[in-house]
């Protein structure tokens, strides 16, 4: 099937990035969020990020104008019903995602493909609670969406070939690269990345290093472009904790237990860049380690 209209649920850092790349690729986008502030902030972020692309000659001012005109925002989830493809990118909590799909179902066109940008939750389980498990799959972008090349495509147990092929075509049209992953907790990238970040938090918790020494060790000693704690702040500590919980519950192995210090930061509301404080404090001119 040919996809032309895309509905995006959740206008946070992933939702706005997905809207950005879809609109530039020529898709018509409708984006919704429970928070109208989030929708306004998302449009401001998309405009600012495209401004930067124009100033660096990555896109033309005309392409920006046309792309922005293709993005519509609404506070009504059901307006997304007629879309060809829906990408859910709301908060990483299964009850939230489940409720979104339940509310959407009665308003969907029969052809609509449903996908989730979840970093870790079972696609098969999310799909099983809808009326179209064969038209349901994982569509997992990386952060920041306009920059990162990879998209993981995750088939649930019932996903049919036509659905997979339609989503693969979208990834191709975005100029990105698809990696096919099986539906096991956290798929490929986060199955490997999150235990490393969690181990960095344990290293901090046990006093083996401080924020600065841990990050510079991994940057200079392992040639990582960002330190693991800096990266955790970038991803969002609530998202990191949610993924560790999914790995711990889903694979029932104590090696995935979330570090208590990660839990404490999330309990404090120190979620990283998005709340201006995490392993670093971002409220000043340059980030200052919080430990
Ligand atoms: P975020 O906190 O920046 O944004 C989530 C948005 O969802 C918020 O604006 C919130 O208001 C909205 N929301 C919550 N409940 C909603 C509902 N019922 N209906 C509509 N909107 C609702 O989070 P994010 O980092 O953008 O993550 C979103 C999803 O993308 C999660 O599933 C996450 O696991 C996944 N993801 C995140 C990253 C990352 O690096 N942050 C990378 C890949 C995938």
Radius of gyration of CA atoms, rounded to a whole number: 19 Å
Helical percent range?
Answer: 40-55%
- Strand order in the largest sheet: 3-2-1-4-5-6-7-8
User: Low-confidence stretches at least 5 residues in length (pLDDT < 50)?
Assistant: none
Which CATH class of the largest domain applies here? Alpha Beta
- CATH architecture heading of the largest domain: 3-Layer(aba) Sandwich
**CATH superfamily caption of the largest domain:** NAD(P)-binding Rossmann-like Domain
User: Approximately what portion of the residues adopt beta-strand conformation?
Assistant: 15-25%
SS-based class: alpha/beta
Report the sheet with the most strands, covering strand number, pairing sense and barrel closure. 8 strands, mixed
Order of helices and strands: EHEHHEEHEHEEHEHHHHHEE
Mean pLDDT: 97
* List of distinct ligands in this structure: nicotinamide-adenine-dinucleotide
**N-to-C terminal Cα separation, in Å?**
52 Å
> Which fold name fills CATH's third level, the topology of the largest domain?
Rossmann fold
Q: Shape from CA axes?
A: globular
The total domain count is 2
Properties at a glance:
globular, 11 helices, two-stranded antiparallel ribbon, 15% strand, alpha/beta, 291 residues, Rossmann fold, N-(1-d-carboxylethyl)-l-norvaline Dehydrogenase, domain 2, binds nicotinamide-adenine-dinucleotide, 8-stranded mixed beta sheet
Question: In a nutshell, what does this entry contain?
Answer:
With 291 residues, this protein is α/β, with parallel strands linked by helices.
């Amino acid at each position: 099937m040919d996809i032309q209209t895309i509905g995006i649920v959740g206008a946070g850092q992933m939702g706005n990035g997905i809207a950005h790349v879809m609109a530039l690729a020529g898709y018509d986008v409708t984006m919704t969020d429970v928070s109208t502030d989030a929708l306004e902030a998302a449009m401001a972020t998309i405009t600012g990020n495209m401004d930067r692309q124009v100033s660096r000659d990555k896109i033309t001012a005309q392409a920006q104008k046309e792309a922005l005109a293709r993005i519509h925002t609404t506070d009504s989830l059901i307006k997304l019903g007629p879309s060809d493809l829906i990408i859910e990118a709301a908060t990483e909590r299964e009850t939230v995602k489940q409720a979104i799909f339940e509310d959407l179902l009665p308003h969907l066109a029969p052809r609509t493909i449903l996908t989730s940008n979840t970093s870790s939750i079972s696609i098969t389980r999310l799909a099983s609670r809808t009326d179209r498990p064969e038209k349901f799959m994982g569509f997992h972008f990386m952060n920041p969406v306009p920059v990162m090349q990879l998209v993981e495509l995750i088939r649930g147990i019932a996903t049919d070939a036509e659905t997979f092929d339609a989503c693969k075509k979208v990834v191709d049209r975005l100029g990105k690269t698809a990696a096919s992953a099986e539906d096991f907790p956290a798929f490929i990238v986060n199955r490997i990345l999150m235990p490393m970040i969690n181990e960095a938090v344990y290293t901090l918790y046990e006093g083996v290093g401080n924020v600065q020494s841990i990050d510079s060790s991994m940057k200079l000693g392992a040639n990582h472009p960002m330190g693991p704690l800096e990266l955790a702040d970038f991803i969002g500590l609530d998202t990191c904790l949610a993924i560790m919980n999914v790995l711990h519950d889903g694979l029932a192995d104590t090696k995935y237990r979330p570090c208590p210090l990660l839990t404490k930061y999330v309990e404090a509301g120190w979620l990283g860049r998005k709340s201006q404080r995490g392993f670093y404090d971002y409220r000043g001119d340059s980030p200052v380690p919080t430990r």
